[in-house]
């Protein structure tokens, strides 16, 4: 709802972010003005939000992260010893857990960095920034490590092929054309094999991302 969205932005600025002085919040508070989108766009620039005005979900998420960070900064002594409910009574959680699990996924800088990397590597956007980071890691490991680049740069040495052992299946009436057709058919088969290999790699990459979905029984579905 547009009105609720605007009220939400005003509440965040008034209560948590407080980037503007009180006297400078008039345009943002005037939620019924036709010029409110312009005021909101200026506000996003002023708080250095990396998203565009059309990207509302990402913008809301980023502003909430900023508000939480500022709230913590104002009350560091109150929150510094707090422990997430899921981490209580788990002394060895950090030892065997996946390294990525210790990242602060709500940090606006982290989200902006992941989004920039995803755009650079042309990776599909996802609502969960940690999922996008895992996809980036898989791509880097599979394609961009020095070993992977060196392997891809290696020239392939062809093996001699006895054309007379391969049946063409038709006759052009010309021995030279028959031989050319046999070569083209073998090259086509090689291209099909390479395509199948790439398809298999894509399937493996997707499975690696979605193989461990988080289950939320409250929503009655798998995934976040």
TrEMBL record:
InterPro entries: RTRAF
Domain of life where this protein originates: Eukaryota
Region (Disordered): 78-100
PANTHER family: CLE
Family designation: Belongs to the RTRAF family.
Name this polypeptide is given: RNA transcription, translation and transport factor protein
Species annotation: Balearica regulorum gibbericeps (East African grey crowned-crane)
């Amino acid at each position: 709802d547009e009105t609720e969205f605007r009220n939400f932005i005003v509440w965040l600025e008034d209560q948590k972010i407080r980037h503007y002085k009180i006297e400078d919040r008039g345009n943002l508070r005037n939620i019924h003005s036709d010029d409110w989108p312009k005021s909101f766009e200026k506000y996003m620039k002023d708080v250095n939000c990396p998203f565009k005005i059309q990207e509302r979900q990402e913008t809301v998420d980023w502003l909430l992260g900023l508000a939480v960070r500022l709230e913590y900064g104002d009350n560091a002594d109150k929150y510094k010893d707090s422990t997430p409910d899921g981490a209580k009574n788990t002394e060895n959680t950090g030892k065997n857990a996946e390294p990525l699990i210790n990242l602060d996924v709500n940090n606006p800088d982290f989200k902006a960095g992941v989004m920039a990397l995803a755009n650079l590597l042309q990776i599909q956007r996802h609502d969960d920034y940690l999922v996008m980071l895992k996809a980036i890691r898989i791509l880097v490991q599979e394609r961009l490590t020095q070993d992977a680049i060196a392997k891809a740069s290696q020239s392939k040495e062809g093996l001699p092929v006895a054309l007379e052992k391969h049946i063409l299946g038709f006759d052009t009436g010309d021995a030279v054309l028959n031989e050319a057709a046999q070569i083209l058919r073998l090259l086509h088969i090689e291209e099909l094999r390479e395509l199948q290999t790439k398809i298999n790699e894509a399937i493996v990459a997707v499975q690696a991302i979605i193989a461990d979905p988080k289950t939320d029984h409250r929503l009655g579905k798998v995934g976040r």
